[in-house]
Amino acid sequence: MKISFDGLGFHDWMRGCEGAEQDALRVIKLCVNAGFPTRVQMNINRKNRDSILPSLALLDDMGVGRARVIPTTPSTRWEMNAQGQSMDWGEFFHNNWPERFARVLAPWKCLNQS
């Protein structure tokens, strides 16, 4: 099961739907508890970047089997609503986000499965 979750305190904003964050976390928990292999994909941007590490810690505590963090795809709809918050791949790598995650998250199960 692959579920999108865009960071504690930011999922509602990114999805444009109040309550989407609680619904996503509830579904993740239901899937993990039911024994489904559960993967979460997170979109990082300038606005939610500081929520990524706490969000990954929560997902790991919940028993998520795998997590992936990528920059938000700059679609037309996203750009209309993003208010300049997009982070492209160049910015993602220039700011060493993958290295930061690797250093801090090495012991977390959700980021260490092939």
Task: Kindly describe this structure.
The two termini are 16 Å apart. It is built from 6 helices and 3 strands; from the N terminus they run βααβαβααα. Strand 2 (39-44), helix 3 (52-62) and strand 3 (66-71) form a beta-alpha-beta unit. 46% of the residues lie in helices and 13% in strands.
Write the layout of secondary structure elements.
Elements: E1 2-4, H1 11-15, H2 20-33, E2 39-44, H3 52-62, E3 66-71, H4 76-82, H5 89-94, H6 97-105
Parallel strand pairs: 1-2, 2-3
Descriptive terms for the model:
114 residues; alpha/beta; 3-stranded parallel β-sheet; 6 helices; 3 strands; 46% helix; globular
- Whole-number mean pLDDT: 83
Strand order of the largest sheet: 1-2-3
The separation of the N and C termini measures: 16 Å
Proportion of helical residues: 40-55%
Question: How many β strands by DSSP?
Answer: 3
Task: Encode the helix/strand succession as letters.
Answer: EHHEHEHHH
- C-alpha geometry: globular
Poorly predicted ranges (pLDDT <50, ≥5 residues)? none
- Please indicate the percent range of residues in DSSP E strands (runs of 2 or more): 5-15%
What does the radius of gyration come to?
14 Å
Largest sheet: 3 strands, parallel
Q: How would you classify the helix and strand content by structural class?
A: alpha/beta
Summary of the model, kept short:
This protein is an alpha/beta fold and 114 residues long. The chain contains 6 helices and 3 strands; from the N terminus they run βααβαβααα. The mean pLDDT is 83.
